[in-house]
Amino acid sequence: MNRPAKQAPGGYRRSPSKKKANGQRSHKRAKILPGADPKLKEVFSEIGIPESKPFVPDRFQTDAVAAMADSDCLVTAPTGAGKTWIAIQTIRRTYEEGGRAWYASPLKALTNAKLIEFSEIFGPDKVGILTGDRKERPDAPITVGTTEILRNQLYDAMHQGISLNTDLVVLDEAHFLGDEERGVVWEETMIYLPSRIPLLMLSATVGNAGAIANWLSIIRRRPCRVVTETHRPVPLYPLVFHPSGTLLPLTAKDNQGKKKLHKKVVGLTNTTRQSKLSQGRGLPPFGDILKVLNTYNLLPAIFFLKSRSDCDSALKRCHGAVPLSNEKKGKIFHRIRSLTKNTPHLSCHQQRLYLEQDGVGAHHSGHLPGWKLVVETLMSEGLLTAVFATSTVAAGVNFPARTVVFFNSDRFNGTEFIPLDATQLHQMTGRAGRRGMDNIGFALAVPGRYMDLRMVARLLSSKPDKIHSRIRINFSMALNLLLSNTPAQVEELLKRSFATWLLVSKVKDSEQKSRMAGVHAVLWEDFLRHLNFLKETGFVDRDDRLTEDGVWASQLRVDQPLLVAECLRQNLLPTDDAARMAGIFACFVNERETDDRLEGRLVPNRLKKNVDRISKKLTGFARHMKSRGFEVRKLYLRPAAMTHAWAAGYPWEMVAKEYTMAEGNLAMLMMRTADNLRHTTHLTDVFPDEAATAREAIDLIMKEPVVEREMELPRDEKLPEETTGGQGEILTRL
Predict the structure, then answer these.
(1) Is residue 715 in a domain?
(2) Distance (Å, whole) CA 131 – CA 135
(3) H/E segment holding residue 101
(4) pTM for the full predicted model
(5) For a Cys-Cys bond, which of 19, 145, 284, 334 suits 149, CB 3.0-4.6 Å?
(6) Given 3-state DSSP classes, what are the helix, strand and coil percentages for the chain, each rounded to the nearest 5?
(7) Which residues, other chains included, contact 415 with Cβ-Cβ below 8 Å and sequence gap of 6+?
(8) What would the pLDDT profile of 54-106 be if each residue is shown by its tens digit?
(9) CA dihedral over 169, 172, 176, 178, signed as positive or negative
(10) Is the dihedral of CA 527, 528, 529, 530 positive or negative?
């Protein structure tokens, strides 16, 4: 579904208008009154809290635990089905047998949550954590960390000629294998992991789980079983919000028992009609929608909106829509106080009033991680009425609701609006219905210019999408593979890729299959292209071995390792100023085109000269890279200036305001800059001054509110648990 070139502010088309006598237009819409189709009476009667029962594991859970006794296992199941229980039982068995376990996840926040959860189960001294920001108890028998850290440990093990020191690996969110940006890390991990180490993969439902398992069985020479659960723990019922305020079923069964659009919904599918819900700057009347949902006991709700600004603006439209009792306001107030007592910046957050007075909050990447944690905690504990979030974070939020509401059937992928696919829609609707708290969950589609109700109905009943290989060659991969492999051995590793297997598996004729053995040629040729450039620039010698420069450069597992390495080789980094060091590294992690027009007072002269000097000195190297077809990102001054200001001690609020960057984006810039600096600290033997300055720079930028002190709960307050029949998955993420 393609969007027109021009659209109303906010992404919603204005409502139909009538001309006044003076030629002006007035924007009128019918009054929204709560209503529901009679057929929903029976559906709504199911709303309620399920009866508490002793926990009994589901068949798919016990099957998966049994499978891990003698094979690898890929578990695919809907959100909230209980995949974590499988991991806990498998880790417990490994631990009780005297073994070690590694639990990898894609998100630092999720990793932190698992640290808390596993520490309560196994004891805090038995669980360590490894992320870019935290390294605690690395020798503990159970390690939780990010997948990138696990992949890096596999690189190190290959280089040292040893096996990874673990007896079990759990890959959470294994469907990230198909993630366009980070899928390569998952695939590398699966390829490099020694076959002696059992592999448990936990995933959302995927369309080609069997193919992934077959591929792993071949490359790991170890059976891999697929355990699939398609049943949602809380049934989902899709609804449509009529502009009048009447709730309608999305679909109905015809005389043959087949599902089709409800007859009253068919009239809303004409996308040329303008939505009557839009008003003002184009946003729907969220307060009126909340009133309707409240009338039919459909709260709390998550509203998925198209932009961060819409999420923030939505809060203002909810005042008084669903009045809170003084008791609930008091609970919210005291809960926020307990969560933010160690974090002054969060305790006076500008959106705190919306939480306390109306029970509504915004959750998106523009907010600090600590503030998102406050919103998630309040929502997961049942204290909020609604949360407004962007669809791009649907896969990362960890607070289910009774209802999810969405206004668009497309999403922005960073460059353009594209239609949602089944996986993305399932991620959004997967938050509808709280296990142990709801008998039924609801997905509410609101008609509008960018809502294709027919497509939504089709996607909700569609099979999950297939995962495709995202493996690609980069300089960090090439350097690390050459650290412990000859080019011939690298070629054999590339033949083990999922991409190669997918192509070969499509050919059944043995003669053709033999010829198709070279389908990895694209990957191999790309590796050779990287290898040749590394030779031309002195990181690899004529015998295809890493030079001294290549060995230390392999430790720079960062976005642009060769540019950072060239800075080190030419002594371009300021070893006498840690704040400037932080600013310069921010240039290398910035991925967006940036407006570099800044007032002179916002750019220290020494920093500007340093960045200009680096840009000039790297010009020849960058041209060489471009001539060989490699991308080189421009070094922008704005990220350097704002990072330098924060490192130099300027107040956080001033930095965010003066350099016009959302707090969440600013915090992410600092965290990624710290990650890049951290790799430089490993080069103590080769560049001791740079390594020491990098360590100092990390300390200057990784401070409150980029990182928050632990949010402690009062001693008499119990941490909330997901009511999954005793599975104890803690929702509070620290």
Answers:
(1) no
(2) 6
(3) strand 101-105
(4) 0.87
(5) 145
(6) 45, 15, 45
(7) none
(8) 989 999 999 999 999 999 999 999 888 899 999 999 999 999 999 999 999 99
(9) positive
(10) positive
